[in-house]
């Protein structure tokens, strides 16, 4: 009879007897239990579970020493921060919070920054995205810093609240973007050595603006777009209320994830309700380019123009600023990254005759001890030439340690 032959000393299992132990083990195999046993190729692996909210946190401690034409100073800063992220099927939410506690040059401790921001994005469909943001930020400049107004002994606190939203929609080769933003800024009093307590309530302002952007994909990598903007400034004390309008056209492109660039040119108007104030009309330039051939190299350059309120302790009706910046980073290996930056700016305060030109350079390195601790060293140079306060130069070196989750 053909078939297998039992070897001496071996006991063959009776095929009519069911091995319940083996059956139980099969039913406990991942991807099979509690279903009946089946070939492994037909089992469906279960997806890894993840918590509904993932929380990351970090704590940074940094010391900075500044030597300048206006004196020297040493500042110590402690910065705790956290990020809570929820990734849903259609909606993603990110909550960021941070605080900065600094020891000022005069020895006092100041909470110079507090911030809380919530960002959300929802996919309504394959071609429609809705986004929203809400945030609060409290800032205060450190007293006694080199280059600050020598007549200000206690700078004002500035509280800013922001609420915004956007809608992006694609129609074939066309895409439409609609964005709106509402911002409220409150300025606290300033303590001055010449006039004592100075109220900045006249600078408290509501700022609302909206933009409509229409783009056309001329090629798979090049987009031509036009953008129109409308804004409004409402001050608590009438005087500088204004309506702003902007219109610009530009081109944007992305190539193979290595190059991305955009450039636009337009005109902006800032019309004051008060007929006694001179309206502002200026050309608007915006451009940016990024080169990142791989994950280790990143080069970025940008140019921008903006019209904003002047802020506290500043005369005039509005600030027109033109800025240019460049940043570079190179990750040598898994534990060392090098950084460099440069910037230039020119600003004028309308209605006061004040102008300022500035430029700066920076360099830094990040050394990672492990996945949780990073040591950072930085150097920065700043030059300012202000028509009212004169020339200011500073050199700052800093060393900081950041521990993260």
TrEMBL record:
Q: Which domain of life is it from?
A: Bacteria
Name of one Pfam family that matches: BBP2_2
InterPro entries to which the protein is assigned, alphabetical:
BBP2_2, Porin_dom_sf
Quote the SUPFAM superfamilies the UniProt record gives: Porins
Q: Please state what the protein is called.
A: Outer membrane beta-barrel protein
């Amino acid at each position: 009879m053909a078939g297998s032959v039992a070897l001496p000393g071996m006991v063959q299992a009776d095929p009519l007897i069911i091995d319940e132990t083996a059956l139980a083990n099969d039913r406990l195999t991942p991807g099979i239990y509690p279903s009946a046993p089946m070939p492994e190729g037909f089992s469906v692996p279960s997806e890894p579970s993840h918590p509904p909210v993932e929380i990351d946190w970090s704590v940074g401690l940094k010391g900075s020493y500044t030597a300048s034409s206006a004196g020297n100073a040493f500042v110590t800063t402690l910065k705790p921060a956290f990020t809570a992220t929820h990734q849903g099927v259609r909606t993603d939410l990110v909550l960021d919070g941070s605080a900065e506690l600094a020891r000022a040059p005069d020895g006092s401790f100041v909470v110079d920054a507090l911030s809380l921001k919530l960002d959300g994005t929802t996919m309504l469909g394959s071609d429609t995205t809705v986004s929203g943001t809400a945030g609060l930020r409290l800032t205060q400049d450190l007293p006694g810093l080199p280059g600050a107004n020598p007549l200000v002994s206690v700078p004002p606190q500035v509280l800013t609240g922001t609420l915004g939203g956007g809608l992006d929609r694609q129609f074939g080769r066309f895409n439409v973007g609609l964005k709106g933003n509402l911002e409220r800024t409150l300025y606290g009093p300033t303590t001055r050595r010449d006039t004592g307590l100075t109220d900045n309530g006249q600078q408290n302002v509501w700022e609302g603006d909206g933009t409509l952007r229409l783009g056309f994909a001329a090629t798979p990598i090049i987009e031509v777009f036009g953008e129109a903007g409308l804004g409004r400034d409402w001050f608590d004390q009438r005087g500088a209320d204004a309506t702003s309008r902007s219109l610009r056209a530009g081109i944007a492109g992305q190539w193979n994830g290595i190059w991305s660039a955009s450039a636009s040119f337009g005109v902006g108007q800032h019309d004051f309700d008060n007929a006694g104030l001179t309206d502002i009309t200026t050309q608007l330039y915006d451009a940016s380019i990024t080169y990142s051939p791989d994950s280790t190299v990143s080069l970025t350059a940008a140019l921008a123009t903006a019209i904003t309120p002047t802020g506290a302790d500043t005369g005039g009706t509005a600030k027109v600023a033109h800025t240019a910046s460049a940043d570079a980073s190179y990750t040598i290996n898994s534990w060392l990254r090098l950084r460099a930056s440069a910037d230039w700016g020119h600003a004028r305060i309308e209605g006061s005759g004040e102008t300022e030109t500035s430029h700066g350079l920076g360099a830094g390195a990040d050394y990672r001890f492990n996945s949780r601790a990073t040591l950072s060293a930085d150097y920065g140079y700043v030059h300012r030439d202000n028509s009212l306060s004169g020339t200011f130069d500073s050199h700052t070196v800093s060393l900081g340690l950041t521990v993260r989750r």
